[in-house]
Design a protein that fits this description.
The complex is a heterodimer. Chain A is built from nine helices and no strands. By secondary structure, chain A is mainly α. Chain B has an eight-stranded antiparallel sheet with strand order 5-4-7-8-1-2-3-6. The chains are: A mainly alpha, B alpha+beta. At the A-B interface, helix 1, helix 2, helix 3, helix 4 and helix 5 of A face helix 2, helix 3, helix 4, helix 5 and helix 6 of B.
Chain lengths: 216, 295
Amino acid sequence: MTDESGSLQRRVASPVDDADRAVLERIVAGDVHALEALYDRYRTMAYSIAYRITNDATLAEDVVQDAFLGAWRNAGRYVEGRGSVKTWLLSIVHHRAIDAIRRRKPTTELPEREDVPPAELRLPDIWAEVSANLDADAVRGAMAVLSDVQRQAIELAYFGGLTQQEIAFRMDTPLGTVKSRMRLGLLAMRRALTDDDAGDLEPVAPDGSVPDGGAP
Amino acid sequence: MSDEMRATDLTCDDVREMAGSFVLGALDPAEDAAVRAHLATCDDAHAEIADAGSVLPVLLESVPVVEPSAALKGRIMAAAAADLEARSTPPAAAPAAAAAAPSLAPASTVTEPIPFPTETDRADRSAAQAAPTRTTSPVAWVLRIAAVVGIVALVGWNLLLQNQLNGAEQYQRDVAAVLQLAAKDGSMTAVLRPAETSEAAGLAAMNPDGTLTLAVHDLDPTKGNEVYEAWLIGEDKVPVAIGGFEVGRDGTGFLATSGVTPAAGIQVVLTLEPAPGATAPAGPVVSSGAASAVA
């Protein structure tokens, strides 16, 4: 897709990335202790994401198990430069969790998804992250630039597994507006993370900087 | 075919408008395919897609933190170990292996689907998980198991009973997992006592089926790449690494692994290593103990 688009600034390999890549190499070689190290490092985030999406402790654990086994079997398909090992792994968790809740839905709600084989392994798209290893303040700052309706649309999609049509219906909003909310919200988050220097984020002022609606 | 027809219908502006929906996975399959088809042939780099996608890790970081049960690790490690075993199974024997472990695909078929646990599996397990916790507090449950196993006095129960440290609850759950294994037929336990410069103590259990669990408290948090590595030292005096873990501020550590060979008198040793993957202990011993059969 967009190779080396030049827009991926500040992606600096951290010592954590290096250690993770070394762990992944051992996983490729079939070292179960390396899988264990990966699990120990990311079990909390992985489970937190799975639980946020499924809202079901048992299902969330199944998702995490599924994702770590997916990583165990597919470690050789990790592509350096597309994102950190952490993002790769957590994206798999996200992907599997969304699959799980979509399958849990009554099929009448989503007729066109029935032809997706339930257990098909599709590795998720990974985009190079805006900045590796953000601290909690930076995350909060970036989330704070979203307007309520932008955050709602983004979360319904990313954590609720809804399509843009379903979100438009749920929010009783025209489809074009929903598309804009998601796009402009994400781009505002990116601006917040790239305009400021890392670690010193302040929420972007609400006036004009976080426009809602109004497709170009 | 119809997807391709639709792809030609998408303009660059259409794709730009859907950048957010696309990276968030909010397009239906036909729309998604149409965007991908457009991107594959378009001269425009459509940087807005990479830009929108670049903040997804931030969304993932924003979720409230919840901890999985201690038992999950054992399940994952056991499944990975079984998977590894299936990899070394000759193709002729594969059907038998597959029948024995239907949820595990041989490694040669990495692109094969990863089976998702069935509804029945889940129902069984949630019933099993819910049973002890719904009617009994975790502490009571741990004490009940401990009483059965008869090793209450051997562990740092004052920590558990004070129930005041952050790590105490985590340690309770970890010890519960260790005791579960200790209660199995043929299991051995090792009480881990602090080395001179440490206060780390805990309990390990291992079973002839090769599984081992270990829970330790009062560990110093790991820094940087540091990991605590556990070793088994048998009669040949050669330490065998059995797994490592990091420790956070709560000071508790837990390890669940498989493929070990327990023997009476075997030493369980915990060291602090500067980096993961050590093949021989380099760091200081923080805690150790010898395995003996559960009476």
